[in-house]
Specification:
about 650 residues, seven-stranded mixed sheet, globular, eight-stranded mixed sheet, alpha/beta
């Protein structure tokens, strides 16, 4: 059925025939003529596989034959010009180590494709190579307009006008290849993908990273773990329980190349690593290339873009954040995002200053005063110092504020503990939810991993998420399991272990998509983004963290705080309907293209009319795309747009 015929039902009243006199011969004649006309029309349009009313610009497939690998690349031209059948898309990676000879084979394929399409979509040109690592909201030149006090210039500063926005496609660097699959990617990456040697020089002694021919090697070293991240994590495990499932989500502040987060993954601990875009070029980009969750971010004047009570553990290994300054505001922000009973780990200055003060080129008095100041801020938060062993110190946040006398935030600020999108950071303690007894866990206790993935989150059971009950949560969990099974039917590569590692959900809701993937045991992680435009759903991000998943707030009218080519797979559920009256659809699609790697996949769910518009733009940004039916069949107005981003680099232009 076509777009219109799939969405339209014809109603013929049964009594209409009864009111007319019965004349058999004319009725039979009319029936035969109609049948003959229909059969002739079907034959002229390519047989019974065709959809007679189907628009030539859109391929709607009721059953996509994507169950086998396609040796030849599918272009938009192939799909748009064929109205007799829906050609399967090619979601395979063609530019891994074994396919170097084809680096430029697809460079010009989509240029001819768009010209052949009957829908005249706008063709977006490629940006210059200087934009290959462009981050819209962390642009170095724009940042210079802002004050350096408290590192404000390193915060998000997005283009303020349309003239400042790039209206072109961010290119991959010459020689770009498909990243190594996990877990190999933890230790090795292609140099051509992140062509930076700065850290190999600046951090050579600390064993962060080294160049090995056309590859980058990550030995797992760090400033404060010269014996490797595994040994460092083992030292932490002697102080707090890392192996029993009670710690699942972690925050790494000033992450370097994220070796701490990379090696924690073997413990089923998911770390959100962040660092600013600064003189240590591309440290977050290295982390993402390794297949480790990370974002560009900084502790400055605004709250971190995470909800309250999100992380089971926070970590700083010589992150050089001045915890003792600004009335302790930075440590108070860590306290806000730390779960009741959560841990804060500090290594590096000033911990163990008696041993390292000469190497740190600071005086004993200065370091001693700094540690005393940090201890005082921690005490003001009612934290308990559990242990200081060697280079590591650990504090624990209380399970409630029942017996805490702290400098709490005002009632107005306290009523919005999850508010974190451009929200000013205040030097005050975010109060925990009230408890009936001192032994209770404020806000409710979470289950251990992996049970917490499917258990009802405390925010849901306590009616803190508007419109969500325990029953609707369970229904949502099952719904996304069914949808993920459908995705795996129409995209064969979805089930290939290692095909997708870095995954983005642009409208995560309750995290059902990510939970379904995690329950299936796929070796991937999902960044769950909750749009700030929908005030009814902003509280869902806290529930997502209570499930043991990670994510952030995001306004999709702005750029995301990440590097180009971050994600292997992007999932967008009703995003374009949500933003239909807020900003240009083209801008959202250009941002999706920026953060999707070459030969990556996008799955876009929306109303069929919206998807037709999206596809017309997608055809102009070098995407191969195809509309397929909803998992419940062709009569559902919501459809799915499957996208395969074509391969091309700056070298091709």
């Amino acid at each position: 059925m076509g777009v219109r015929s799939a969405a339209t039902k014809l109603h013929i009243p049964p009594s209409a025939a009864a009111r007319r006199p019965t004349t058999v011969v004319p009725l039979v004649a009319v029936f035969l003529l109609c049948s003959a006309s229909y059969l002739v029309g079907v034959w002229q349009h390519g047989g019974f596989a065709a959809s007679p009313s189907q628009s030539p610009a859109v391929s709607i497939a009721t059953a996509v034959a994507c169950t086998t690998s396609i040796p030849k690349r599918t272009t938009t031209k192939n799909m748009a010009s064929s109205s007799s059948y829906a050609r399967p898309l090619d979601f395979s990676a063609h530019h891994a180590a074994a396919a170097d000879e084809a680096l430029s084979a697809a460079a010009g394929s989509s240029s001819a494709a768009a010209a052949a399409s009957s829908t005249r979509s706008r063709r977006y040109p490629a940006c210059g190579i200087k934009y290959s690592e462009y981050t819209p909201c962390e642009d170095v030149e724009r940042s210079l307009r802002y004050p350096r006090d408290r590192l404000v210039y390193r915060e998000r500063h997005c283009p303020a006008t349309e003239r400042e926005r790039l209206r072109c496609l961010v290119p991959a660097p010459p020689g770009y290849r498909t990243p190594f699959p996990w877990p190999a990617s933890r230790d090795v990456a292609w140099f051509a993908n992140v062509p930076h040697k700065e850290l190999t020089v600046e951090k050579a002694v600390q064993n962060w990273i080294r160049v090995d021919g056309d590859k980058l090697r990550f030995p797992g070293g760090g400033t404060m773990f010269p014996n490797g991240a595994d040994a460092y994590i083992d030292d932490i495990a002697k102080l707090i329980p890392l192996h029993d499932g009670s710690i699942r989500t972690a925050l790494d502040t000033g992450c370097g190349v994220a070796s701490w987060g990379a090696y924690l993954l073997s413990q089923d601990i998911l770390a959100m690593s962040f660092a600013p875009r600064d003189s240590h070029e591309a440290q977050v980009q290295f982390a993402l290339e390794r297949g480790v969750p990370a974002m560009i971010g900084v502790l400055a004047s605004k709250r971190l873009t995470y909800p309250a009570r999100a992380f089971d553990m926070a970590h700083c290994s010589r992150c050089l954040i001045p915890w003792q300054l600004y009335d302790g505001a930075y440590l108070m922000e860590v306290d806000r995002v730390l779960r009741p009973g959560g841990y804060w780990i500090l290594s590096g200055p000033p911990i163990n200053w008696k041993k390292y003060w000469k190497g740190w080129e600071r005086t004993k008095e200065d370091l001693h005063a700094e540690q005393q100041a940090i201890e005082a801020v921690a005490a003001s938060l009612c934290w308990t110092k559990l242990k200081e062993a060697g280079d590591i110190a650990v504090w624990q946040k209380p399970y409630s504020h029942a017996n805490c006398k702290a400098r709490f935030c005002s009632r107005k600020a306290a009523n919005h503990p999850d508010a974190a999108w451009y929200h000013k950071m205040e030097p005050c303690v975010t109060p925990l939810p009230e408890v009936s007894s001192a032994s209770d866990v404020a806000g409710g206790a979470v289950r251990k991993w992996p049970q917490r993935l499917t258990a009802v989150p405390p925010r849901v059971s306590r009616a803190a998420v508007k419109g969500v009950t325990a029953r609707s949560f369970a229904q949502d969990t099952e719904l996304w399991r069914r949808r993920v099974r459908h995705y795996k039917k129409v995209i064969a590569q979805f089930d290939q272990k290692g095909r997708y590692r870095n995954v983005l959900d642009m409208n995560a809701r309750l995290g059902g998509f990510a939970a379904a993937l995690a329950a299936a045991g796929d070796p991937l992680w999902v960044m769950n983004m909750v749009p700030t435009i929908d005030t009814n759903t902003t509280s869902t991000l806290g529930a997502i963290y209570e499930r043991g998943l990670i994510g952030s707030y995001q306004d999709w009218c702005e750029g995301m705080s990440t590097y180009p080519r971050t994600y292997d797979l992007i999932h967008a559920d009703s995003v374009f309907t949500l933003y239909s009256n807020r900003c240009d659809m083209d801008w959202i699609l250009l941002e999706m293209d920026r953060i999707l790697r070459p030969e990556g996949t996008a799955i876009i769910r929306d109303d069929v009319d919206m998807l037709v518009k999206v596809k017309s733009v997608a055809d102009g940004i070098r995407w191969d795309s195809q509309i397929v039916d909803h998992e419940d069949g062709p009569l559902v107005r919501e459809k799915i747009l499957l996208v395969a981003k074509t391969y091309w680099t700056a070298q091709d232009h």
